[in-house]
Design goal:
Keywords: Membrane, Signal, Transmembrane, Transmembrane helix. The chain is mostly helical. Helix content is about 80%, strand content about 0%. Helix 4 runs antiparallel to helix 5.
Length: about 190
């Protein structure tokens, strides 16, 4: 045997008793298993889908009203020769634009809801919040109609009376919409 091999063997013989007493190395720590995700609760999925359906229906109606308001308002504004009708047209365009923005935010919220895995209680609470918002808005709509009627009745010129008629018209639709959605929400 070459001299070097003898040295390694001699070293192994000297270390053998110490190695025999040594504990085996600790096993490598196995990665903690990630528990499989729970399957979605069918009742929660149904509650979420019902909430989304109600929201979608509301935003579809509001978007349709917004587009109709903008189209008719622009036509009245552009083609009318009198201040009363032009003022109604301006109100329709302005309110239609605001309704369109609100509907856009509503649709954005709907998109975010689709991936939420929340319990039924969460969706019931969301339904209650939505109902409350619609009913509070219906109360505000009464103020819009009242303000518009006062502008029509006491306005000093056709411009103010036309603006009042436009506000009353928009407020009337929004009252019917908000009341129907608030009373019809689950």
């Amino acid at each position: 045997m070459p001299r070097r091999a003898l040295g390694i063997h001699a070293l192994a013989l000297l270390l053998a008793p110490a190695l025999a007493r040594a504990e085996p190395p600790a096993p490598a720590i196995a990665p903690t298993a990630v528990p499989a995700p729970k399957p979605p609760d069918p009742a929660a999925i149904a509650a979420r889908e019902a909430h989304i359906e109600t929201q979608t229906r509301a935003m579809t109606v509001l978007t349709s009203w917004a587009l109709a308001s903008i189209a008719t308002g622009a036509a009245l504004w552009a083609t009318s020769g009198d201040d009363y009708t032009r003022s109604i047209g301006i109100q329709n365009v302005a309110w239609g634009a605001v309704d369109g923005v609100i509907a856009g935010f509503g649709y954005r919220g709907i998109v975010k809801m689709r991936d939420l895995d929340k319990p039924v209680s969460y969706w019931r609470a969301e339904d209650r919040k939505m109902k409350t918002i619609f009913l509070v808005n219906a109360g505000l709509d009464v103020l819009y109609v009242t303000a518009g009627a006062l502008m029509v009745g006491f306005g000093k010129n056709d411009w103010v009376r036309g603006a009042g008629a436009g506000v009353a018209l928009q407020g009337s639709f929004l009252f019917a919409f908000d009341a129907a959605m608030g009373l019809g929400a689950r």
